[in-house]
Fold this sequence. Notes:
about 140 residues; alpha+beta; eight-stranded antiparallel β-barrel; globular
Amino acid sequence: MKNLKKIVLVLVVALGLGMFAMSCSNDDNEGETIVPIQGKYNLSKQGIVGPDGSEQLTDAPANQSGCPGDYLELKLSNSAVVGDYSGASCALVETTGTYVRSHNDLTLVIGGVTTTSDIMNLTNKELKLKDKTTGIITVYTR
């Protein structure tokens, strides 16, 4: 009877440890970031991946000198706003659209034009996108 209690105890402990190990093994997010994507991002840099695999980024040419930086705002309602400052008076033109995030893909429909990008990096301070069609990397900061 004493041996049977030991065997049952060992089986219960082994089963408990096995369930614990299995429940934790699928907690990863498969590379997907858990930072919310909603927010206002200032256009910072653009570039490409060079032949050697390194990123070649420069200050975003779309930002007009002397004006505030252009921006992308992604709202909780899945609406998107692109702000573009241009001209001598730095006039702001806002174009609205929508966005959809699916895992690490971001699809934007702005002014009737659809683009899909890989989300390369998303933190509380940065959103880095790589256009799936052109390969252009765009970096936004908060």
